[in-house]
Amino acid sequence: MDLAENLAGLQARIAAACARARRDPRTVELMAVSKGQPPAAVRAAAALGLRLFGENRVQEAKLKIGQCPGHLRWQMIGHLQSNKCRDALQCFSLIQSVDSLALAEELNRLADKMAKTMPILLEVNVAGEGSKFGYPPKAVLAEFARVNALRRLEVHGLMTVAPYSPTPERVRPVFRQLRELREQCEQILGAPLPVLSMGMSGDFEVAIEEGATLIRVGTALFGARAAARKEAAAAAGEENEV
Ligand SMILES: *Cc1c(COP(=O)(O)O)cnc(C)c1O
C-alpha cells in the first residue's frame, strides 16, 4: 500500500468527476477517514498535505489526536452516545453525525457549560436502512428549526452514508435526495447551508456529480482497515492477539 500513490489516484478521480459535473475541484474537500488506522498513518497522510480527518469513535480519536500534529482538523462521523458528548466537544472541530433533537440538546447544554460553539451536520438516513443511524428525511425537516435554534450549535449542512452497492450508480438517487433536502432546509433557514457530506471510497465520484462538498474516504486512501490493524499489531509484536 503506497499512500502517496493512492492519494494521487484519488485526486485524479476527484478532478475527473468535477470535470464531468463542471465543478471546481476546490469546492470538494477530501476527508481522510482514519478510523481503525494508527497515528503513524495519520502522520504520513498529514505529510502529504491532508488536513481533515474523520473518526467514528470518541475514545479512539482522543488517543490518536494526542499523537498527531496539532494543526490537523478532526471531525466526528460515527454515531454519538450522550455519555461521550463532553469528550466529543473537546476532540472535534465539527460533529457530522447529529441524528436526534435529544442529542443536539445534550451537545448544546454541554457546549454552553464549556462556553463554546460547535458546528454540526445533521445525519440523514436517506434510504431508511434499519442498520444505519440518521434522521429519516421527513424528521430532519420537522426538527431542523428546533436544532438550529440551539444557541451553542451551528448547523453547517447535511451528511449521509449511502447503502453499500458494488454499482455506485445505483445510489445516485440517495445523493440527489440529500441535495434536495439541503435545499428544503435552506428555505427553512433562509440562508445557505454550505456543507453536503456524502460519498465514500466506493461511491464518491457519483456523490461529487450530485453536489458533495465533502467526501469521506478511508480504504481507498489507507487500504483495508483490518490489514492496518494487523500490521500495527505485528509491529508491536502482538500478532497472536489479533
Ligand atoms: C468508515 C466510514 C467512511 C469511510 O469508508 P470507506 O469505505 O473506507 O471510504 C465514511 N463515512 C463514514 C460515516 C464511515 O463510518
The portion of residues assigned to helices is 40-55%
Radius of gyration: 18 Å
Instruction: Provide the spatial order of strands within the biggest beta sheet.
Output: 7-6-5-4-3-2-1-8
Run of helices and strands: HEHEHEHEHEHEHEHEHH
Largest sheet: 8 strands, parallel
Structural class: alpha/beta
> Ligands in the structure?
pyridoxal-5'-phosphate
Strand content: 15-25%
User: What would the average pLDDT be, to the nearest integer?
Assistant: 94
Q: Provide the CATH architecture.
A: Alpha-Beta Barrel
Overall strand count: 8
Task: Write up this protein.
There is one protein chain. It contains ten helices and eight strands. By secondary structure, the protein is α/β, with parallel strands linked by helices. It has a single domain, classed as Alpha-Beta Barrel (TIM Barrel), CATH 3.20.20. Helix 6 packs parallel to helix 7. The C terminus is likely disordered. Bound molecules: pyridoxal-5'-phosphate. Pyridoxal-5'-phosphate binds next to strand 8 and helix 9.
Short description:
The protein is of the alpha/beta class and 242 residues long.
Kindly list the characteristics that best describe this protein:
242 residues, alpha/beta, TIM Barrel, eight-stranded parallel β-sheet, 10 helices, 8 strands, 44% helix, globular, binds pyridoxal-5'-phosphate
